[in-house]
Amino acid sequence: xxxxxxxxxxxxxxxxxxxxxxxxxxxxxxxxxxxxxxxxxxxxxxxxxxxxxxxxxxxxxxxxxxxxxxxxxxxxxxxxxxxxxxxxxxxxxxxxxxxxxxxxxxxxxxxxxxxxxxxxxxxxxxxxxxxxxxxxxxxxxxxxxxxxxxxxxxxxxxxxxxxxxxxxxxxxxxxxxxxxxxxxxxxxxxxxxxxxxxxxxxxxxxxxxxxxxxxxxxxxxxxxxxxxxxxxxxxxxxxxxxxxxxxxxxxxxxxxxxxxxxxxxxxxxxxxxxxxxxxxxxxxxxxxxxxxxxxxxxxxxxxxxxxxxxxxxxxxxxxxxxxxxxxxxxxxxxxxxxxxxxxxxxxx
Length: 348
Fold this sequence. Notes:
There is one protein chain. This protein is of the alpha/beta class and 348 residues long. Helices cover 49% and strands 9% of the residues. The protein has a six-stranded mixed β-sheet with strand order 1-6-5-2-4-3, with helices on both faces. A hairpin with a 7-residue loop joins β3 (59-63) and β4 (71-76). The termini are close together.
């Protein structure tokens, strides 16, 4: 998908470019900066010395050296001083300049840490919002895969109030595996079946005296059934692909507007468009439902076209349902919450 959040060591990301949260001297240091310098090897330090430092909010490029990436983009985030020293704009500039360089160097994929959210003290929630905002704005006009890489949950923080609201919604709707009532009829049937030989219960007592063949299933009935099946197969309802394209037209969107808003790769969308019987994954279906801002009933209909349903025994389903029910259609906000709850993200 174009933008995704992953939990990983950024020095091990296999992509075209990795962004380094550097200091203005580009001399290496602690945190992400130190880890990247150690992973890239001593040649990175020599290359950085030739760049002559970097102003806050700007970015410069070196080779990846011993890292599994072609380039390292060094950007200098602001030190948090309470928010009155233009810190948000400087942080936004870090993402814009890094993405500009990634595009200039024809990168197809780039991995970011949460810039300034570590030793520089920028509030994690606001840092994440700025990162997502700038990256998503860039992706509306550019095709690139962008990763936000976090090492652990402690370094990632979505909106505290939003998480509380989602947790409350889950608590109200989630059906745990222990909440299902025992199906006494099924249990009794299985028990009686198992006990029949031992207790001498006649087969006729349990199943009736007539077998299926004795119930009058004639050749005429079989032909009628086959004919009915053929008729049903010839009158199939619209497929997921057909419903998606119809909804795009009804919303007055272009294809590109839809798949970008859905955080879906252009190549995947092309497969869906060209094959009316394409079978997407559930996160892909829901991503399009979010992009099209469908109601909950419309979302359920679209899921049904692809052979899925929403279930209150799935936290993933309940989280997505929460956002749709509250008409909150920011897919990146939804993915932040899904990531926090260790769920699959929406998109390809």
